[in-house]
Amino acid sequence: MERIENKVNNQMKDSNNVDYPDFDQMWSSIQQDELKVAGGEPVVLRPRKRKRFALVAGLSVALMATPVYAALNYDWSSMLSHREGIQSALEQGLGQKIEQSVTKEGVTLTVHTAFIDENRTVVLYSLKPETSQDVTDIDFKLIGLKDSKGNFIEGHHGHKWNKDLGEFQGYFETDWVGKGQTADVEFIMENMRLFDNKKQSISYNPNDSTTQVFPIQKDGLDSVTLQSFEEAEGKVLLKSTVTLTDPELESRWTNFEVINDTVKSVEKAEGSSYLDGGAILNQIFKSETLRKEGTKFRLSYDRILETKKSTWSINMNLSKKQLENGSFKQVLDIPMDNVPGTKIHEMKVTPTQVRLKFTRDDHNAIPFKEYQLDVGGTLLDGYFMNIQPNEPELRFEMAGMDAAALANQPVTLVAKHRIDGFYGDENDKPIHLTDISEKHQTATSSIAGYPISWTYYLKDNNLYVETLSSDPTFGGVDRTYYLDGKEQNLGRPEPNLTGSNKSIDVYKNFNKKELDIYIYSYAIEKPNEELRIPLKSGK
């Protein structure tokens, strides 16, 4: 142990002896790939089993915020596929090298690189659990930053297993950027949980349209309930609902898997979405996939292996100086044509990201589906974030673009595929549903000249109301309601996984035979409409 401490001390005295990764070499072999979570089936990243290494029997070793000595080649490309600006900055050799580690209870946290500019702060880290168990995932009760006054700073984080290095690679991102050019912060994690992945066979019968319940009663799971709904074009919506006996698992998602017994592979759902924090999973399958002879079904879920009630923390002094080159802010206050009460207020550019801040009147939506920034002919894809009320932000990752070059180029906002939302009118004639039962029944109506077909039925004492229009420019009925006196009772919308304008509202514990249904809101689409707004001219 003394020899180890002496070696650490000697290397800390001479920072030139530290071998850091060759980042140019690291990025020469980047491959673009993405771990899909939202809107698709979660990918289970199953690590290989690892051996436990003991330095000294009975002695817990903690390297408190010491430099990392092994020059490992870290590939962050899959972690940063939706944060291409950070990846591009890494390729340019930007980013503040931290390379500090701390070990607690056999898990080593290493902060590798940090970025801070006027748009965001990003920390790239790794976690290495030394355990013989087959760990497939980790989570924390708390992860974030603390400023110099001890204030906790929240953000977003994610991680992925690197089987070659035997550790998790992760990122933490926050809109907090401090007030000055430098900031003393503490990156902190508390109460870590280690998970493995388990499979439980389910004797689901795809030919039985009634609700099926299967007891699990182990590993914190009580049961899984399966409901099926026939869709158009020979497809089935499968809803799986998991109930728990261990509330500690409420934040964990489960997955219902369909196994092709011929090739022993998991059939991919055509669409999926989670509700209620992951307790409910909706999936779309082809009917023939579910009913194929020999097809098997199982539940995939996470099981808690260990809970480590320690705190991992690393102190850092972050500086914006490295990312100042090319950064600028410009007040625009440009009205958006045909979008009343909405202005593009400000553009903020850094080497990793462009942000457009909007101002708008109350309840005014910005009615486009796709956004791009045209920078001298190069297009950057954007996405909206609503951080402050009535001040939404469009964010564009600086993928392969230099911020200094952007300052000299003409910049135009391109908005495509307009979708306008409208509220229904109580004076509109309601849809009268009669003889409500488990039998599927239909009705027809129209709104704003668009034809609408209605299908309604009972299932498990809940009323399901489906709407669909044959006109593809009709964006769909967003919500429906019925009146109880003067009070509106809104249906609960189910996610649309079909790609059509079909929508489903659910009314729980329904026991009436007749009902007047109103349209609360609906949308009309103009997929070919495009709006171009010049933001700045070139030099």
Q: TL;DR of this structure?
A:
The protein has helices spanning about 1-15, 25, 85-90, 285-290, 405; strands at about 65, 95-105, 105-115, 120-130, 135-145, 150-155, 155-160, 165-175, 180-200, 210-220, 220-230, 235-245, 255-260, 265, 270-275, 280-285, 295-320, 330-335, 340-350, 355-360, 370-375, 380-390, 390-395, 410-425, 430-435, 440-445, 450-460, 460-470, 475-485, 485-490, 490-495, 505, 515-535. It has about 550 residues and is mainly beta. Strands 18, 19, 20, 21, 22, 23, 24, 25, 29, 30 and 33 form an 11-stranded antiparallel sheet that branches.
Architecture blueprint of SSEs:
Layout: H1 2-13, H2 23-27, E1 66-67, H3 84-91, E2 96-104, E3 107-116, E4 121-129, E5 137-146, E6 152-153, E7 156-162, E8 167-174, E9 182-202, E10 212-218, E11 221-231, E12 235-244, E13 255-260, E14 265-267, E15 271-275, E16 280-286, H4 287-291, E17 296-319, E18 328-335, E19 342-349, E20 353-360, E21 368-375, E22 378-388, E23 391-397, H5 403-406, E24 411-423, E25 431-433, E26 441-447, E27 450-459, E28 462-468, E29 474-484, E30 487-490, E31 492-494, E32 503-507, E33 515-536
Kindly list the characteristics that best describe this protein.
single chain; 539 residues; mainly beta; 6-stranded antiparallel β-sheet; 5 helices; disordered N terminus
